[in-house]
């Protein structure tokens, strides 16, 4: 069942103050009270009157409660001493070099204390699962393409985490990040016990009408509360308002 409909503000990060006011006014007028934010937006925007959950608030273990980890291995995050190179050649150049060498795969800084350093090995993800369990908190993990790619002995990181973590560890599905959208229904079925929020953009051509219908129907029939989150690929206030109207009709 769909517990709430939310809007992800990340695409609107660079909006001016006037644009922010217009956006938030439109969201509120559409009857949406739930927002997914980033640490930058939390600091710079006035979000009073909304319920918020944070994304990217994950520099250390203290911020892992009631927030979403946006991918455990994510482009643009570098571990020491590689991260120091940004001071010499600039972050953009470092990212470009990293893309060539590491193919956009870097460990998030809050898990650099794990004894197993190679995230291409199954042991790394098993140790990570144990570490997440030890925090004894509800933690939601957002996927990029990497988490659902079968590169570890034929398994994906989500598959390993699903097998080794407690029910406290939840998944936030972003189907637009799937390498192959034909796997969407399989992913929804396989991880239905853990998925408690889903990103959706009705205007994104990556997902076809069948994909979008599968997401809506899954969200409606699942027995647990689901948070359906609108995350626009290209920020557009008018299209956002139309999406909210359409989603409300569908659900």
In CATH, the architecture of the largest domain is Alpha-Beta Barrel
CATH topology call of the largest domain: TIM Barrel
User: For the report, how would you describe the main beta sheet?
Assistant: 8 strands, parallel, barrel
Structural class: alpha/beta
Please count the beta strands (DSSP E, at least 2 residues each).
Answer: 8
End-to-end separation in angstroms reads 9 Å
**What ranges have pLDDT less than 50 throughout 5 or more consecutive residues?**
none
Q: What does the overall shape look like?
A: globular
- Give, in order, the helices and strands: EHEHEEHHHEHEHEHEH
CATH H level of the largest domain: which superfamily? Answer: Divalent-metal-dependent TIM barrel enzymes
Number of domains: 2
Based on CA atoms alone, the radius of gyration comes out at 18 Å
**What is the residue-mean pLDDT, rounded to a whole number?**
84
How are the strands of the largest sheet arranged?
1-2-3-4-5-6-7-8
Which band does the percent of strand residues land in?
A: 15-25%
Q: Which CATH class of the largest domain is shown?
A: Alpha Beta
| Alpha plus pi helix count | 9
Classify the helix fraction into a percent range: 25-40%
What does this structure look like?
There is one protein chain. This protein is α/β, with parallel strands linked by helices and 251 residues long. It has 2 domains: 2-75 and 106-250, TIM Barrel (Alpha-Beta Barrel), CATH 3.20.20.150; 76-105, no CATH class. 36% of the residues lie in helices and 16% in strands. The protein contains 9 helices and 8 strands. Strands 1-2-3-4-5-6-7-8 form an 8-stranded parallel β-barrel. Helix 2 (39-44) links the parallel strand 2 (34-38) and strand 3. It is globular and about 50 Å long. The model has no long low-confidence stretch (mean pLDDT 84).
